[in-house]
Amino acid sequence: MSVETFLAEAQEPEGITLRGHQEEALEAIVRGLSQRPGVEVPVGLRVNVKMATGTGKSYVGAVAGQRIAPRGSVLVVVPTLDLLLQMIASWRRAGRAGEMYAVCSLEAGELPYDVERSTNPVQIAYWLTSAARRHRPVTLFATYASTGAIKDAYRVDPALMGGPVPPLDLMLCDEAHRSSGSVEKTWTVVHDQEAIPAVRRLYMTATPRVWAPPRSVRRREGAYQPLEEGLLCSMDDTAVYGECVFDLGLQAAVDQKLLAPFEIVVMELRDPVRNRAAARRQPLPYGPGVGEDEEDDQVHPERVAAIQAALIKTMAERKLRRVITFHTRTIEARYFSETLNQTVERLNGEDPDKYPEEFWSQWISGEHPTDFRQEVIGGFGTAENEGLQHAVLSNCVVLGEGVDIPSADGVLLRGHGSMVQNIQRIGRAVRLDPDNPDKVASLLVPVFLKDDEEPDDFLESDSYAPLVKILTSLRAHDAKVVENLAVPQHSGHRTSGRSAEAVQPPGLSGPGGKPSFSLPVRFLAPKDPDSLALFVRTRVLTGEGQYWREGISHARAWHQEFGNLEVPYSAMTGKEGKFPLGKWLSGRRVEYAAGDLAPHRVDMLDALGMVWSVPDARFEAGLDWARVWAREHGGSLAAPARASIGGYPIGTWLSALRAAAQVPADQAGALSAHRRRQLEEIDPWWCPAWPITWQRTYAAARRWWLEADGRVDWRQLSEDVVFEGEPLGRWVRAQRAGWAELDQEQRDLLTALGIEEDQELVAAKAAAEAKPKVSRTDRFQQGLAALAAFVEREGHAAVRRPHKEEMEAVEAGPGGEEQVVVSHFALGTWLNNQKSRRAKLTPGQLAQLAEHGVEWA
């Protein structure tokens, strides 16, 4: 498909309103997957997007698919059947039209009524071929496990289909980390352009996985051999996954209020398996899995009972309404759920004022039918309707990737599973709750202390391994969330509610210089802040330094090189460019303005020429993001009002400055000449006299012209061409047609690109203006003559509305000679007009019409 055809088909989605960060991600995807003039990509265009769990990744993918291939073929690949069903609903809400098919093992009754299913390669090939011939959109939804059927569809004999199966316009791989790892996995077929040809591939994930080859390979006969480097699919390999065009981490999502702030609550328990006294104090609930003959069906009832009691106490004390527990075995999930209320009843008997009589408690696993799982998940969100204040949903390998569930206040994490699984589980809790705007999610981590251990021994104790696993998982996903814990936090501000989000950690700040989210870790037995910092450094970060020392060191190095501390907000410094010096200095300004920065630290920064003005710092931060935006948009600052970049609302910032630029210089709120010049240095047309929408489309036209090396025939450009979301074809035609209405500066800009006035249209207008005007009286006489000719030929005056009467007239030719000119007079339309205005006709005109047999006259 040519770039003109691709971009002409891009259209706005219906049914979904994207937020600022989602609009930014969408624009990055469309730009990354736009074919450039004259550039061929043999393996297809590829990009990847990283968005934290709960920030609307699935909707962004659906809208991107609708923008990129509204009338093409799309394959959406997901890891689970539950997510497949959810994806079908998301794409429909995004306005996706045409046929939808499922390539999976679900039965017809489990799918929407109008979605057919098949894993037959011939049937799949027919779906794709038929849709292409009819120029109709088609969307296939498949699991990674069923992509082999797609591959086989492209092997179907072309003679059977009347030609080769056309390539996909777009393949979208959701939860794309599932396609990483060994190339010998069946699922990695999604990367193979020869097996499944696709013009574009979009990989989306919240938890990217980066693989490294083993340092040494031990080869032993009959043993599994570790993979060598060439046999790995790692998500940092741009040849496989393309460039990362958008990256929204966990901390950035919390800072931008896209996810709820969260805290870790460590439930320190005595191990009842090793401590018999504790076991005797903890009655065992009776339920499945206890006392069974088969060893695989056994659970540890003492530990489960202890965790149940700790969970119930924590939910009651912290007023947690809904909590999800994760288990590695179905029997444990079932036992935990079906015996939970036995523990609730015991605690209620001990303290009825503190503990309720009953919890809502259910469990699900992958062995349950889809309808049953959906029913249980729905009940989890409506437990309050049954008069139950607390709900606990236990699951085994179900509530992982992508599946939507009601908002949970917390999750119980045992530290089992991979880092990716732990992040997916945490994502269940950090989603925003519209009914609880002050929500702070709780990550509940039980640890069992040995007989000879005390809570103060946590630096050396192996019992805290579950906490280390959770913190390590968070750090692997987004280091910023955890690394601040390595700095002693002596402030007592982090108590409850949104205050957990508003703490200013040393060294980091969020968008616009606002305080950045800092992760609280709460223990049953309070820990000394220095000890907690040491625990994180030695057990999680392996010796990371303190942020203040790093920051002041990088600030000194900057001052030595540039002689000032005018550091752009996005500046990254250090040997590997990983320290956010601009953000660090912005954080210090916020502390200084609040009076929270120690005097000796103020002196150290003053010695380096620190600029303390918060408004100036905010403008400099916006100016830096404006430079970044301009670099990515051909030097233009014509950003939409909803545009954002790096989480910064650049569109709103520019709109406010354009409004200030309209204020007279001697009035309050006017934009200073210095700031105006700074913006003009980035884009001379950042605040034009004409609408900014015109400038934005002009910028797109200029990028089109540049990428075509200036060789563009604007007269032949199709009216349907859309480039990077702008209706380029229609816009160019409108400028050429409305040339006289443009400002001279607009004409100069267009002329520089080779866009000129439509001379044919000018000539047509001139000819029309030069043509003699026919008066209404003359027009009536022409009509009367045509009517007379008609009546003479047909014998009646019943003229049909569409009829045109052929008329001959003698006119002077170019050389003065007489010539016969034939024209077609719209007699039917003329008579109809006369009838509608007969009240304005003169008696003489009516009489003339009556003479020719016109009845109404």
What does this structure look like?
The strands form 4 sheets. The protein has an 8-stranded parallel beta sheet, sandwiched between helices. The chain has a 7-stranded parallel beta sheet with strand order 13-14-12-15-16-11-17, sandwiched between helices. A two-stranded antiparallel sheet has the order 7-9. By secondary structure, the protein is of the alpha/beta class. It is built from 30 helices and 19 strands.
Q: Which percent band covers the strand fraction?
A: 5-15%
Helix percent reads 25-40%
The CATH C-level name of the largest domain is: Alpha Beta
Question: Main sheet: which strands, in order across?
Answer: 4-3-5-2-6-8-1-10
Give the strand tally.
19
| Major β-sheet annotation | 8 strands, parallel
Helices and strands in order:
Elements: H1 3-9, H2 20-32, E1 45-51, H3 57-68, E2 73-78, H4 81-93, E3 99-103, E4 116-117, H5 121-133, E5 138-143, H6 147-153, H7 158-161, E6 170-174, E7 181-182, E8 200-205, E9 232-233, H8 238-241, E10 243-248, H9 250-255, E11 262-270, H10 276-281, H11 301-318, E12 322-327, H12 330-350, E13 360-365, H13 370-381, E14 391-396, E15 410-412, H14 419-427, E16 441-449, H15 465-477, H16 479-483, E17 521-523, H17 529-541, H18 547-562, H19 581-594, H20 599-606, H21 614-632, H22 650-661, H23 673-682, H24 692-707, H25 728-737, H26 744-752, H27 759-770, H28 776-794, E18 805-812, E19 818-825, H29 827-836, H30 843-851
Parallel strand pairs: 1-8, 1-10, 2-5, 2-6, 3-4, 3-5, 6-8, 11-16, 11-17, 12-14, 12-15, 13-14, 15-16
Antiparallel strand pairs: 7-9, 18-19
